[in-house]
């Protein structure tokens, strides 16, 4: 559903030249246990899972199968944890129904970020009210399996890998944000951008992975950052998201995203050298067909599923799994090498 465009605000919302001026966001660090085998960190990656239907349950069952067979130390949830809109209170029973009941049996912590549906205001998915993200941060104090100490944070796992979690919903909202300082290229955006640049620069981890709900590149229906959904206004098209991700290009090894209900893997591109991108946004439904033509190492459209990573000092092994009647079927394996 496409929200009504507030065309009268076009002059106010015109995109400004992105800047790193301003104070960085607080440097919040999530504390994670180091696996007994510090040379292997195995991560299961899901996105856009919060549909609450049969597909979400089947994918969760398939994830349990893979984690039991291959091992999982950590999970990543890439946003849109709730549909059509995220709860505004941490006490909402939706946390139990759509997270704890389904993923609690995995017995691993999940690094969580918010998506545009989690931050809904008027229309589900408009991404204009960060109160939904605040509720998810608050829930992390109630359930240690849900790791989200702030909307923007980092999570090192020993010296092997460090995750950098972003909130991209304010960078590509469909409607003007409730809080003026959260407009794209506003104070909040600049602070997050400055934090990301500084945190990546200071990190000594072997691998650096950035988590953001909206993708930089995608061949799915939403398109790519700066061109999302072919909206008429720059703030809706995600130019601010593109500028944020460009800060990671060549500094991070991999960007993990959802938003598009597909499974995609891109090698470094000429417009983002040195950094891979993985999309795992099919944990709640089998999305629609392929639209774009950007060269991909792998993509799967119209299939529900998830990704699994085996991170070692020299190689990240990437596997994609489709969920078929609650069972996991491997559909791709590849490697990212140092």
TrEMBL record:
Domain Calcineurin-like phosphoesterase: 42-262
Pfam families: Metallophos
Keyword field: Hydrolase, Signal
Signal peptide per UniProt: 1-22
The keyword Hydrolase is assigned to this record: yes
Keyword Lyase: no
Identification of the protein by name: Calcineurin-like phosphoesterase domain-containing protein
UniProt organism field: Deinococcus xinjiangensis
């Amino acid at each position: 559903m496409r929200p009504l465009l507030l065309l009268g605000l076009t002059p106010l919302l015109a995109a400004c030249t992105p800047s790193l001026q301003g104070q960085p966001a607080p440097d919040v660090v999530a504390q994670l246990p180091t696996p007994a085998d510090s040379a292997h960190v195995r991560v299961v990656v899901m996105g856009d899972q919060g549909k609450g239907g049969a597909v979400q349950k089947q994918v969760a069952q398939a994830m349990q199968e893979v984690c039991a067979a291959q091992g999982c130390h950590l999970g990543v949830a890439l946003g849109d944890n709730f549909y059509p809109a995220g709860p505004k209170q941490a006490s909402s029973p939706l946390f139990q129904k759509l997270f704890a009941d389904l993923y609690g049996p995995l017995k691993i912590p999940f690094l969580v970020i918010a998506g545009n549906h989690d931050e809904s205001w008027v229309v589900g998915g408009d991404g204009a009210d960060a109160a939904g993200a605040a509720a998810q941060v608050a829930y992390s104090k109630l359930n240690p399996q849900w790791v989200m100490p702030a909307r923007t944070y980092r999570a090192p796992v020993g010296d092997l890998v460090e995750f950098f979690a972003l909130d991209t919903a304010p960078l590509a909202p469909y409607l003007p944000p409730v809080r003026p300082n959260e407009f794209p290229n506003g104070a909040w955006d600049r602070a997050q951008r400055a934090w990301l640049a500084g945190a990546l620069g200071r990190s000594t981890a072997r691998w650096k992975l950035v988590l953001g709900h909206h993708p930089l590149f995608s061949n799915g229906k939403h398109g790519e950052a700066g061109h999302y959904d072919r909206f008429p206004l720059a703030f809706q098209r995600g130019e601010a998201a593109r500028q944020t991700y460009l800060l990671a290009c060549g500094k991070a090894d991999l960007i993990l995203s959802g938003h598009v209900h597909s499974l995609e893997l891109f090698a470094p591109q000429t417009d983002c050298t040195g950094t891979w991108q993985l999309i795992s946004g099919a944990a709640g439904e089998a999305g629609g067909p392929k639209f774009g033509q950007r060269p991909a190492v792998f993509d799967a459209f119209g299939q529900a599923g998830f990704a699994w990573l085996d991170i070692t000092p020299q190689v990240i092994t990437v596997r994609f799994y489709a969920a078929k009647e609650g069972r996991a079927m491997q559909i791709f394996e590849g490697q990212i090498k140092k």
